[in-house]
Amino acid sequence: MRSYLIVSWLFLAPGPASQTQTAFSGDAALPAFRPGGRIDSAGAVRADSRTFAVIPDTVSAGAPDPASFSTAHAAGPGNEGGIPSLAQSHGVELSASYMADVLDNVRGGIREGAAYMHNVHLTLSLESEALFGWPGMTAYVHLISNNGGSLSQYVGDTQMSSSIEARNVSRVLEGWIQQTMLHGSLSFLLGVYDLNSEFYSNPSALMFLNASFGIGKELSQAGTNGPSIFPNTALAVRTRYRFATGLYMQTAVVDGVPGSDTDPSALSFHWDPDEGVLWVSEIGYLRSEEASSVPDVKVALGAWRFTTPADRVLSDPSAAADRGNNWGCYLISEKEIHHRKSADDFALSAFLRAGYANPDVNCYDLDIAFGVESAGLIRGRQDDLLGVGTTYARVGAPFREWSWLRGMGMRDGEFVVEISYLAQVTDWLAIQPDFQFVVVPSGRADIRNASVCGIRLSATPPLAAL
Predict the structure, then answer these.
(1) Cβ atoms 93, 85 nearer than 8 A
(2) Contact (CB, 8 A) for 62 and 215
(3) DSSP one-letter string for 151-183
(4) In this structure, are strands 347-357 and 385-395 parallel, antiparallel, or unpaired?
(5) Average pLDDT value over all residues in the chain
(6) Rounded to whole angstroms, how far apart are CA atoms 334 and 349?
(7) SS3 state at 278
(8) Mean pLDDT of 258-263
(9) 380-422, pLDDT tens digit by residue?
(10) What is the arithmetic mean of pLDDT over 216-231?
């Protein structure tokens, strides 16, 4: 009966929920375990100064900006997807949006249960040339408010069935200034920055709800509080150069620990030498139609490294000498397989990507994702999207050994299949039924395969021009 009431709950559910991500309370006690965290001397994986049981990484979402919920997903300052112009006049652009997920773990996992999660977004963009005659400068502020709902406490997954699942927080997600020059080919950015807005991004994968389609688990887990992505972002410097041929190069230097050791969501506008930095570089090729946010072709290779060493998985963290470098790399690709030849034709795109992280200091060392997205497959529904995707997060060999020594019995990894249909109801409202099947959640042998179904609502109400 619960699954039949899921749509009603979406519209009748109250405001911010008091539910927070706490340890699971299944039928049997589970060993303390949090993928992607630090292992303390007692053998528990720590994060946010608390010990969790199979709680997934709260910073692994890398959620798409709900200001655009069809193929035109926001792609940050690089503008690969672009934020819709909802209220734009005289160099001022304002948008407000709301995204809600109501998802139900109908079978398997830790236990059955449903959760309501929502995000409220407000963005403001200022263009200096229109405002006071200075060419090429943009100031951008992005505010979010998240209600703290959690489905992962029922599923026990590490990749997270909802990309907007996060702690109960209201904060500045981004606040930066960007200067472009050389006719827009070269740009520099400084400020609080969401790394996933430009790096490790597959535009055709952003329709999916599962967080690993936003950014791979092998990177989202890395570091003390994860990298600078939703919902915990940090101060960064980014430079980017676009060649006329479609090639581009970009590099970012980001504060190594977003927030603080006790509060990942805390705003931090300083560099701490003890925390180090995260270096990320990406080189790629991008070819796209002027009117489309999903590229005809995109291929990119990226690499990242934290300057501060991390504790090895199979070591005592108190032994400072037994630490390793935290690094990784990724390859992303996508291609439009079928291009629309007329207004009533359909489009079809596919993506494939893989990422690797040093298994000596990370729980998950490999992430692979593949999927297809079709727009306008049903005649008369040209703005609707249908997507089928799979994602796999592999448990690294050192962490599997660590788990067996403590009686967890980790398997190879977690595998997810997702089927989703986005129905564009109006220009500003979309409803998206979704189904996910999670195989071996978190790679844990003692957690049953889970079936998740639900719906996402995305709304960007039209705003009058300023």
Answers:
(1) yes
(2) yes
(3) SHHHH--SS-S-TT---SEEEEEEEEEEEEETT
(4) unpaired
(5) 80
(6) 7
(7) strand
(8) 78
(9) 898 999 999 999 999 999 999 888 887 777 889 999 999 999 9
(10) 92
| CB contact burial 230-251 (16+ within 10 A = b; e otherwise) | bbbbbbbbbebebeeeeebebe
The CATH classification of domain 2-459, taken from the options 2.40.160.180, 3.40.50.740, 3.30.70.2740, 3.40.50.1820: 2.40.160.180
What single-letter DSSP state applies at residue 368?
E
Find the helix or strand (DSSP H, E) in which 10 lies. helix 6-12
Q: Which residues pair with 420 in a beta bridge?
A: 387, 434
If you count them, how many residues does the chain have?
A: 466
pTM of the model: 0.81
Both tokens of 153, joined, read 């406490």
Q: How many CA atoms lie within 13 A of 52 on its CB side?
A: 22
Structure tokens at 154: 């029922």
CB 367 within 8 A of CB 359: no
The domain segmentation of the chain, as residue ranges, is 2-459
Dig out the tokens for 188 from the structure: 């520099």
The tokens for 253 are: 């230097």
Residue 97 has a pLDDT of 95
